[in-house]
Protein: TniQ domain-containing protein
Amino acid sequence: MKEKSQLLNIPIPFYDESLKGLIIRACMLNKIKFPLMYKFANLRSQNEPINVNDINETRLEKLGEILNIKADLLSSLTFHNAFKKCDIKIKNSIVYMGMFNGQTKICPKCLDECGYHRKLWDCKIYCVCPFHRCMLVENCQKCYRSIYTHRSNILKCECGFMYSEASVKTCEHEEVIEFSMMLHNKLFDQSRFIISKLYCLDHNLEFAQAIYLVMHFVKRISQILYKRNINFSYNSDFNNLHQIILKVICVFIDLPNSLHVLLDEIYQQPFKKKYPLHTSDLHFTVIRNLLMPEFKFILDPYQQYIDKVASKFDSM
Ligand SMILES: [Zn+2]
Ligand SMILES: [Zn+2]
Structure:
């Protein structure tokens, strides 16, 4: 480092790069160990790296000085702008529940072609690469270690395995690919991908709202239909993540019918016959979480269905 604590070699950020990834590239370019950089830039809390996707301005300024990159540009590599206009409940939900900090996912093909860490990979609900139409990868395929956001080399595992050599699985579901395309368009203010199936989500919601809505549905569906709390990781023993995401996304394709088909399935669960959904805590959680004007397009058909079922129960 030079005087005034500035790096000699400055990495040029890519439009959709993650700040974490840029810090790793800066360390690699300047042959600095990244824990040192986090320490130096005061990016730690209780000795752990903080989640720089949600970094405050003071820390950003300091990091900007070290990297010799304007704080505004660094801020655009976080999710800060996407959260600026959204409800605080939505923001907190996504930061604490929907973002990776330790482990992450990557697209081996993107890493091979571009050599940087795309910001959207840190979003737990974003599972498919819209450029290569393949599933993102969570583990090193040689030593099976998780892939970490705070890693010393952007391109390879500590065991030496090049992530670009990982085999990838093509995603068979156009709806899930389109969901990734839609998030990419929204986050980067682009109309790079054409969205047709998910028109309803695309039309009604901002980036953060779309993540929040799908994430909450995924959580509820896994609780009701699979009796599990999902942690949004392929690494967990509960590896239905992709199926549940697909199921949830399909709910938005043909409203209200698609939602009613899902609710029919829920009502066919034996325990729901005894403890009807509309009297459960879960029902009130759904209502509470969706009580914002933006979610009216989904809350209204939900309420219609519940009213119909409730009146049936009442007349029994
Ligand atoms: Zn890719
Ligand atoms: Zn490895």
About this structure: The chain has a mean pLDDT of 88. Strands lie at 44-45, 48-49, 103-104, 128-129, 134-135, 147-148.
